[in-house]
Amino acid sequence: MGTHVSSPSKVATSGELLSDYLKENQDIGAKSADRFGVSDGGLPFLFKVLSIEKALSIQTHPDRTTAEKLHAEQPHIYRGAHGRMPPPHLLTQPTDGNHKPEMAIALTPFSALCGFLPIDRIVSYLEEVPEFAGLIPVAIRKAFIASASSPETGGVLRELFTSLMTAEGGQFVPALEALVERYRAGRANEREYQLVDLVIRLHDQFPGDIGVFCPFVLNYVELEKGEAIFLGAGEPHAYVSGGEDQGQGKGEDLIKSFQI
């Protein structure tokens, strides 16, 4: 809900675009608009209400410099949060090159994958979860484990995550099936036991999806009502569950309506 061109809000009493109303009444939110360099009736934020019945996709947002570069080079592709294309009649309207950090506030119990696990935790999964370890090339796996005691781990972490997310289907699908079969049979080891229910749930929602392996590299957090998480630039994340309508078959409809 906001002034983003992909799904602009309207004033309830008149049907007028919110952006047009704000343009005519620039005293509303003037300090915020000035601080964030917003003009022409825009808002420096996008408010979304999500009811999450199924996990959303793994994603990350660029920093401001990268966002400006993407917007300058591909303005009709990088058009804001989640990069969705607007309807054809809105293609000529202005867009922005702002970065898109997020804050998620739980209205009900809520869960998400967000940010990378501590390096030593990932190392333990590489050593104890053969289905996961087998997807990482030996050289990258050894370099990552060797880096566990080093303060500079960004490069090897990037290589590990890239190799995981780009694994070929012929390799990771059998590995995933073996992992889920082992978990359903109750053969999880002590360290991975806390992930069993999450992995099975994600697999049931998205069979054969490489994203089911993400709990071995990303933090899994559970929030109670009123708690929040902040997701800065470059932090991979996926909202897993949350909302009053869980189990009622309405979650996807709400996501389609509000996620821009």
Describe this protein's structure:
This protein is of the alpha+beta class and 260 residues long. α6 packs antiparallel against α7 (154-165) and α8 (169-184) crosses α9 (196-205). Helix content is 35%, strand content 10%. It is elongated, with a radius of gyration of 21 Å. Among the domains are: 48-63 and 101-115 and 227-260, no CATH class; 118-216, Phosphomannose Isomerase, domain 2 (Orthogonal Bundle). Residues 81-94 and 246-260 have low confidence and may be disordered. 22% of the residues are buried. It has a 3-stranded antiparallel sheet, with no helix packed on it. A two-stranded antiparallel ribbon has the order 1-4.
Primary descriptors:
single chain; 260 residues; Phosphomannose Isomerase, domain 2; two-stranded antiparallel sheet; 10 helices; disordered C terminus
Distance between the termini: 9 Å
CATH topology of the domain at 118-216: Phosphomannose Isomerase, domain 2
Structural class: alpha+beta
Counting DSSP H or I runs of 4 or more residues, the number of helices is 10
List the helices and strands and how they pair.
Blueprint: H1 18-24, H2 30-35, H3 64-73, E1 102-105, E2 110-116, H4 119-128, H5 130-133, H6 138-146, H7 154-165, H8 169-184, H9 196-205, E3 218-223, E4 228-231, E5 237-242, H10 251-258
Antiparallel strand pairs: 1-4, 2-3, 2-5
Helix pairs in contact: 6-7, 8-9
